[in-house]
Amino acid sequence: MNITDHPVVASLTPVFILIALGYLAGRLKWIRESAVKDLSNLVFLLLIPALLFRTMSTVHVEALDLRPLLAYFLAALLLLGGSIFWRGFDRKSVVMALGGVFSNLVMIGITVVQLAYGKPALVTLLTIVSVHAIILLTVTTVVLEMAVASENRANGMEAPHLLTTTWMAFKSALIHPIPLPIVTGLLFAQTGWSLPMVVDKPLMLLGSAFGPIALVLVGVTMATTQLRGHLQSALWITASKNLLLPLMVGISAWAFGITGLPLTVMVVAAAMPMGANVFMFAQRYEVAQELTTASMVMSTGLALFTLTLVMLVMSWIN
């Protein structure tokens, strides 16, 4: 078989070509920084919800296997806790630990999984996506608020109530353009109805536009980021995100008896580069912002090699 015909290479090549084209467009200022926010809103508020709702609108709850959720988040939370313990308990440590476990499952993951493994694989992936932000971002918010409270007490300041902060974090993660269309799509599927053609066709067209635009935006973001001064720390975060998390998820899935396509999707999802939500946390808590951005760029750039490696290994195992 010609190397270019290998399923892994054939599915990943378009992904990285689109990211490279976005990088070129960013460097040449074809897409200016001021336009990136508007394009991001287009992707997150219109294209992604259309794709997620349409995909989940035919999935019946009784057919879902929830073991991948348990296995994936057991591994992710163990790595999150271990990373915080290793670096020490403060805001910077927590944000860096989140960078090592929070995957870009939407802007890159959905496109890669669909190209490589087809629509059936999206069911497993979107099951993880539906609670990915809710679990990881809520837990991280709680831990960050505990770190802030500890700093405030050390400085003689009053900290906000932890339960209030936790509830606000959970609510903002749930009422979000990612989990909301997944949940509503699942609820619609349980009615037994089918989407009328006049609704299904526009949703299909919007969903098909998501992948290319999202990947180009990833490249544009990379073009405006400098790695200088953060290489060593960014490399540690990238190693955790791109290699250690998929290894731990694979071991966890094996312990739960998960095999075949669900196992592959879980491990590949864990091997996706770092997601942009980590930078939002760095901004919100005013810590490690440049390091977080540099880590996201390095994680995405090196994913060309690490993600290819992980997908090849999974093709040999399965």
From TrEMBL:
<feature type="transmembrane region" description="Helical">
    <location>
        <begin position="69"/>
        <end position="86"/>
    </location>
</feature>
<feature type="transmembrane region" description="Helical">
    <location>
        <begin position="203"/>
        <end position="223"/>
    </location>
</feature>
<dbReference type="Pfam" id="PF03547">
    <property type="entry name" value="Mem_trans"/>
</dbReference>
<keyword id="KW-1003">Cell membrane</keyword>
<keyword id="KW-0813">Transport</keyword>
<dbReference type="GO" id="GO:0055085">
    <property type="term" value="P:transmembrane transport"/>
</dbReference>
<keyword id="KW-0812">Transmembrane</keyword>
<feature type="transmembrane region" description="Helical">
    <location>
        <begin position="169"/>
        <end position="191"/>
    </location>
</feature>
<feature type="transmembrane region" description="Helical">
    <location>
        <begin position="294"/>
        <end position="317"/>
    </location>
</feature>
<keyword id="KW-1133">Transmembrane helix</keyword>
<feature type="transmembrane region" description="Helical">
    <location>
        <begin position="263"/>
        <end position="282"/>
    </location>
</feature>
<feature type="transmembrane region" description="Helical">
    <location>
        <begin position="38"/>
        <end position="57"/>
    </location>
</feature>
<dbReference type="InterPro" id="IPR004776">
    <property type="entry name" value="Mem_transp_PIN-like"/>
</dbReference>
<dbReference type="GO" id="GO:0016020">
    <property type="term" value="C:membrane"/>
</dbReference>
<keyword id="KW-0472">Membrane</keyword>
<feature type="transmembrane region" description="Helical">
    <location>
        <begin position="6"/>
        <end position="26"/>
    </location>
</feature>
<feature type="transmembrane region" description="Helical">
    <location>
        <begin position="235"/>
        <end position="257"/>
    </location>
</feature>
<feature type="transmembrane region" description="Helical">
    <location>
        <begin position="93"/>
        <end position="117"/>
    </location>
</feature>
<protein>
    <submittedName>
        <fullName>Transporter</fullName>
    </submittedName>
</protein>
<feature type="transmembrane region" description="Helical">
    <location>
        <begin position="123"/>
        <end position="148"/>
    </location>
</feature>
